[in-house]
Amino acid sequence: MQPFLGLRSAFYGAPDLSATRDWYAAVLGISPYFDQPFYVGFEVGGYELGLVPDEPPNSGGVAWGVAEIQSAHRHFLAHGAVETEAPHEVGGGIWTSRVRDPFGNVLCLLQNPHFRGGQ
Q1: In this structure, what CATH number is given to the domain that contains residue 106?
Q2: Residue 35 is inside which H or E element, if any?
Q3: What DSSP designation does 83 have?
Q4: Number of domains in the chain
Q5: What is the pTM of this model?
Q6: Digit-coded pLDDT (tens) for 5-46
Q7: Is 119 part of any domain?
Q8: How far, in Å, CA of 101 to CA of 83, rounded?
């Protein structure tokens, strides 16, 4: 039996849990499936985004798969994220960019036509 089932969750620090939850609900266009003072969870494309209060924001980020990098990047910027790395191709038709949410978390956006995770 293989011990690993695959990547399922990304956890972001949420110094202001309510503000962080509301921002992600607006950006993602969905409500959390779990919303408690100690944890907020969103189901996003078959994976989980968990917001954890009293944790510092991460700086490395987690890759978020997107269908079209340019529009996804603009979408996050329109919701108050700050660009830390403009969209660019890294090879093989794979594109990446990075933004920082209003709470200090880094999100890596990834357009990868070779990976079909969560489908």
Answers
A1: 3.10.180.10
A2: strand 34-36
A3: E
A4: 1
A5: 0.73
A6: 566 788 888 989 999 999 999 999 999 999 999 899 999 988
A7: no
A8: 9
